[in-house]
Design a protein that fits this description.
Length: 325
């Protein structure tokens, strides 16, 4: 496809490429989160089942987060399925229960009732947002997506209903305009963002636990005074290239627990469900500002070390207000 084609042509090609994975994605192995040494949330742990059920091979668990628009009796009703790239728009959606009613009561997790992730299909653009809920259950937040193309919207929440489990529902979002294909960034172990350098040690292994250690520095000096952000010193979201299976990982320990130091190291434990390429997004807060460092890793070994590169302006923090932190 040539650069400059309109989004209508892009969308048709995209639908043909992803097929069912672009919708519910039931034929792909899910991303699974391993329990961290210190409990940090109430997200449920998936239970593995015998091998052979997934398109990638490996271990099958319950459907991966974000691949379905409906799960557990709840549905993500995206009221704004189309926006214009480069233009500020209000993104609106409703979470509906099995009776079609808008959900208006949620458990607070990591200081918020709901976390919203918006990521482009090529995993170059990423937004971690916290929208506002109206009394009628409608969520909204202004966004400005820098490039035309296909995006995936992830709503991470837990209903207030007794016994309800944490859910991550996903829906497709299209940004109109001239589409220019972007390649997935090459594997990297160091990322630069807004004058900070973040180094990743460790890698993902299919079907096995692995530890990911991230070290934050600025001007060549370790940052030892990270600030709590949503109750922790760092939050990591992992998305699998291709189907965008979603994993919201949390760090070992919590801010203020008397054991966890405020940097420079932030550690996580995760399991990759299959071989393949993953994109990791680390949110951390320092001197009152939230920053996002992005990494590309391949399951099966540590990321290949490369010279650090500055994140592009249209990448993880292309527009600060969009993060809604």
């Amino acid at each position: 496809m040539h650069a400059g084609l309109k989004i209508t042509a892009f969308a048709a090609a995209l639908a043909a490429t992803f097929g069912t994975a672009y919708g519910v994605g039931m034929g792909i192995d899910p991303v699974v989160e391993d329990p961290a040494p210190a409990r940090h949330d109430s997200h449920s742990e998936p239970s593995p089942t015998p091998e052979g059920g997934g398109g990638h091979g490996g271990h099958e668990t319950k459907p991966a987060g974000g691949l379905q628009i409906s799960e557990g009796g709840y549905t993500l009703d995206l009221r704004t399925p189309n926006v214009t790239s480069g233009t500020r728009s209000d993104l609106r959606f409703v979470i509906r229960d099995s009776g079609g009613r808008a959900v208006t009561a949620y458990q607070r997790e990591h200081e918020k009732e709901l976390h919203l992730i918006v990521a482009s299909r090529d995993l170059v653009t990423y937004r971690h947002l916290h929208p506002t809920r109206a009394a009628d259950g409608t969520w909204s937040i202004p966004v400005e997506l820098p490039r035309a193309g296909g995006y995936r919207v992830f709503a991470d929440f837990t209903p207030a209903k007794k016994g309800a489990e944490n859910l991550t529902l996903g829906a497709d979002l299209a940004a109109s305009g001239s589409y220019e294909p972007q390649k997935l960034p090459a594997p990297n172990s160091t990322a630069k963002i807004h004058g900070y350098e973040v180094r990743l040690d460790g890698g993902l292994r299919p079907g096995k636990q692995s530890e990911l250690k991230l070290k934050v520095s600025r001007n060549g000096r370790p940052v030892t005074d990270l600030q709590p952000y949503l109750g922790a010193y760092g939050h990591l979201v992992a998305l699998r290239s291709g189907d965008l299976a979603y994993l919201h990982v949390h760090p070992h320990g919590e801010s203020g627990d008397g054991r966890t130091e405020p940097g420079p190291d932030i550690s996580f434990t995760a399991t990759a469900p299959s071989s393949g390429t993953y994109r990791l997004f680390l949110d951390f807060k320092h001197e009152g500002e939230v920053h996002t460092a992005a990494f590309t890793v391949r399951a099966g070994g540590a990321a290949t070390a490369q010279e650090p590169a500055e994140e592009p302006a249209h990448g993880t923090h292309g527009n600060e207000p969009e993060h809604g932190h």
